[in-house]
Specification:
Layout: H1 2-27, H2 32-40, H3 45-80, H4 84-100, H5 102-112, H6 114-138, H7 142-157, H8 160-171, H9 177-206, H10 208-230, H11 240-245, H12 247-255, H13 257-261, H14 264-294, H15 300-327, H16 332-353, H17 360-374, H18 381-388, H19 393-422, H20 426-446, H21 452-455
Helix pairs in contact: 3-7, 3-9, 3-10, 4-7, 4-19, 5-6, 5-8, 5-19, 6-7, 6-8, 6-10, 8-18, 8-19, 9-10, 9-15, 14-17, 14-18, 14-19, 14-20, 15-16, 15-17, 16-17, 16-20, 18-19
Length: 466
């Protein structure tokens, strides 16, 4: 047992392959040869750096396209005479579509490659974004066409993060996953800042249509450049043959899904991600209202910009720190737990500090610290799913993100109820802290970093190993 622990990180796949060879001989499932093929297909460090920049830009454009509608919603409501309820219906339809393609996107990515799913989805949601003004002007019922367009945007963008998880588990070595995921994750904050600044300027100078045209066409251009220069213009992008090649692995994984969900480490990852996503969505939705209510004379650009400026370097730092600790020989599971402790534990301290009566500068500082520390989850629970089940990381991350999205919507509504019923923001911040600490305790108690997608079938072969 001591030998396995000492060399588990470097030699674990070899041990698994020896056992899987017996399995392959019996049931005809590709075993060790396929494992070695996947291992040798990892990106080199220069390739990983190029892909990191490309995926960072893609995530930035993803959020530019996603936030285009919220930025233009007021102008569109004035032009088309929408009520607050109708505007809310258009904006909310995105999240319902976003929930339904998470698992499917991850499942397909595990079979054919995450980069192909990312490419196809980006081309589709980019074209949809650019085509949005046309739908609004030429449809007799703009409220219907915009609601449908936002729902489709949610469906198409829902595959993005599960595909990233699948791609990272297939192409990036363990000691470099934290940096890639945290860097790519910072693209969401960068995109929010870019579209918030440039989008508002285009809205004032050229009208709301220009925001959709520019963000949509840039996204399509990104997809084209990725296909042309990184995938070398290979086509067709997804063939029936590629789907068939992933079939045996997918069927094997599908047979063991019930056992996978019985693993305490897998349940811990899902629950922890659910908690951190719920609290993040709640903060994202209600912090602007908190500042408006508590500090009515404060300038909006201060509390809408500064926390995101802090979040970007914080996310990059967490990725560098986690990869450095792992490369220095620290236990991977311990590093993931440390990152999550900063994300949910230390961040909760600053959230609680908002409960007291503070000045505006201190409130901005506490919120910035909270949002900055929250980004450490990119190197914690978000990467841990790739440690546990690299063969089905995309589909498993899709399950996590679906649970997180649904719970996030519910917690946002419940927070609004607390504000109305208590008339105090203390109850909301206390709720956020409680949920964070619950998820953190579960993660610290049950999280692991060993592969459980293979270990779950080991007991069958105890008698074979002599």
């Amino acid at each position: 047992m001591a030998i396995i622990q000492k060399y588990g990180k470097n030699c674990g796949p070899d041990l698994v392959c020896h056992k899987e060879n017996h399995q392959s001989d019996k049931i005809g499932v590709p075993g060790c040869q396929k494992k070695w093929t996947e291992q040798n297909s990892s990106w080199s460090r220069p390739e990983a750096r190029i892909w990191t920049v490309v995926l960072l830009l893609g995530t930035c454009l993803l959020y530019c396209a996603r936030v285009a509608m919220p930025i233009c919603a007021v102008s569109m409501a004035e032009q088309f005479n929408w009520s607050k309820r109708e505007s809310g219906m258009v904006l909310g339809s995105f999240f319902w579509g976003y929930c339904f393609t998470q698992v499917l996107g991850g499942y397909v990515s595990d079979r054919v490659g995450g980069e192909k799913v990312l490419l196809l989805s980006a081309a589709a949601w980019g074209a949809m974004t650019a085509f949005t003004p046309v739908l609004a002007h030429f449809c007799s019922q703009p409220i219907f066409s915009m609601t449908l367009a936002r729902f489709l945007m949610g469906l198409l963008q829902g595959v993005h993060y599960p595909s990233l998880a699948s791609l990272c588990s297939q192409k990036v070595v363990e000691s470099e996953r934290g940096f890639l995921m945290s860097t790519v994750g910072s693209g969401s904050y960068l995109g929010t800042l870019v579209i918030g600044g440039a989008g508002s300027l285009m809205l004032d100078l050229y009208g709301w249509e220009s925001v959709f045209y520019v963000s949509g066409l840039l996204s399509v251009l990104w997809a084209y450049c990725m296909w042309k220069y990184l995938l070398k213009g290979e086509g067709p992008i997804i063939t029936l043959e590629s789907l068939g090649n992933g079939g045996s692995q997918s069927k094997l994984s599908k047979r063991h899904w019930p056992r996978l969900f019985k693993q305490p480490a897998v349940c811990a990852v899902i629950i922890t991600h659910l908690c951190t996503a719920s609290t993040f969505f709640t903060l994202l939705s209600w912090l602007p209202t908190f500042f408006k209510d508590t500090f009515p004379d404060a300038k909006g650009w201060v509390f809408n910009v500064i926390p995101w400026l802090v979040a970007i370097p914080s996310s990059l730092f967490s990725g560098c720190l986690s990869d450095h600790l792992i490369s220095q020989g620290f236990d991977t599971a311990s590093v993931r737990k440390l990152m999550q402790f900063f994300s949910m534990g230390v961040a909760s301290v600053f959230t609680l500090l908002l409960c007291g009566t503070t000045t505006f500068p201190w409130a901005v500082a506490f919120v910035s610290a909270t949002m900055g520390l929250t980004t450490f989850s990119h190197s914690g629970v978000s990467v841990n799913v790739q440690d546990l089940a690299p063969s089905c990381a995309g589909a498993l991350f899709g399950v996590m993100n679906t649970c997180g999205a649904f719970s996030g919507v519910l917690m946002v509504y419940f927070s609004g109820y607390l504000i109305e019923s208590t008339g105090s923001w203390t109850s909301v911040f206390a709720l956020i802290t409680t949920v964070n600490l619950l998820g953190l305790c579960i993660f610290l108690a049950f999280a692991e970093a060993r592969r459980v997608d293979i270990d779950s079938i080991k007991p069958r072969y105890h008698n074979i190993h002599i």
